Structures are given as structure tokens and as C-alpha cells.
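Lab notebook, design round three. We kept the backbone fixed and only want residue identities now. Task for the bench partner: fill in a sequence for the structure below.
Input C-alpha cells:
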């Protein structure tokens, strides 16, 4: 399929941006956030490397916008959990705001990277790293071999390192 060129995207924006903003406003109940996510939707199309053809603009835009909306809600849940964690211990001296932002953005990138992995790979990694489960326990729970558990953990860990290193300068 041919990819959309900038003239097509400009025309799509001119014809559909008001409709998409109203559609998002109904989903969010916030016109300002809807405007932001409408722009994010068109930015996703502009920066997309995937080829696509637009036959029915509104269903097409709604599909892309649902994905943008899903990412918005996922990020909001992650941000809420992050802030709750920071506030859980009032005596804890947390990092300064700039460091908190860097940590949160890294957390978002790691979450996105893990979300792209197959569910068993992600589960093996999280159970190992967050719950401290043994490889044998993970293998039993997932009904796979211990060697496969190890491969899953290495795969997910490598994916996380690829994401974390450029953002934070971790070595």
C-alpha cells in the first residue's frame, strides 16, 4: 500500500481535525486534552514509517486516535502509581523534580518496551525482577522449561537495557 504524503496528510488534517477533536472531547471530557491528543494523532501519522492508505478518513483516524488514547491512559496510570510510590513514605527524601521527570520518562519507555514483548516473556521478566520468583517457579507457572524462562528473562532484560541506556546514560 502506498504511504500517505504530506499533501494528503495536510488535506486530511484540514478536513477532519475538528471532527477528531470533538470525538476525542467526548472520550475524554476535556477539550484541552482532546486538542493535545488530536495533535498527537496527526503527529503519529506524520512520523509513521508504516505504509497506509486512507479510504474512510473518520474510521481510520478514530483507530489511530484510540491507540493514542490508550497510550494516554496507560501513561496516566503509570504516573499515578509513580507519584503514589513517591508519596508513600513522607520521610523519604525523594529526588529533585528534574531527576523525577527523567526517572518517570525512563519508566514510561521501559513500560512501552515491555508491552511490546510477548506476554510470557514479559511475565517471566517481571516475576523474576519484581517478585523475586525463582526460574523453576516461573517455569512451572508458565508451563515452560527453565531454559526458556532464562531466555525470556535475558530477552526482556536486553530490551530494557536498550531503552534505559540512551535515556539515562546508564552503562
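Proposed sequence:
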Amino acid at each position: 500500500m502506498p504511504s500517505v504524503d504530506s499533501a494528503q496528510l495536510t488535506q486530511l488534517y484540514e478536513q477532519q481535525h475538528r471532527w477528531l477533536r470533538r470525538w476525542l472531547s467526548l472520550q475524554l471530557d476535556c477539550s484541552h486534552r482532546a486538542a493535545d491528543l488530536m495533535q498527537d494523532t496527526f503527529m503519529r501519522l506524520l512520523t509513521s514509517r508504516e505504509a497506509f492508505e486512507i479510504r474512510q478518513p473518520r474510521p481510520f483516524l478514530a483507530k489511530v486516535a484510540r491507540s493514542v488514547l490508550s497510550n494516554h491512559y496507560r501513561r496516566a496510570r503509570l504516573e499515578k502509581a509513580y507519584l503514589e510510590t513517591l508519596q508513600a513514605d513522607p520521610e523519604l527524601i525523594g529526588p529533585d523534580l528534574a531527576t523525577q521527570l527523567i526517572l518517570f520518562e525512563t519508566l514510561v519507555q521501559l513500560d512501552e518496551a515491555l508491552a511490546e514483548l510477548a506476554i510470557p516473556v514479559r511475565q517471566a521478566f517481571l516475576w523474576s525482577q519484581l517478585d523475586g520468583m525463582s526460574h523453576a517457579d516461573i517455569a512451572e507457572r508458565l508451563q515452560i522449561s527453565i531454559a526458556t524462562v532464562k531466555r525470556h528473562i535475558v530477552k526482556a532484560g536486553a530490551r530494557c537495557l536498550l531503552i534505559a541506556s540512551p535515556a539515562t546514560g546508564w552503562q
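Keep this in mind before ordering anything: Confidence is low (pLDDT under 50) at residues 167-171.
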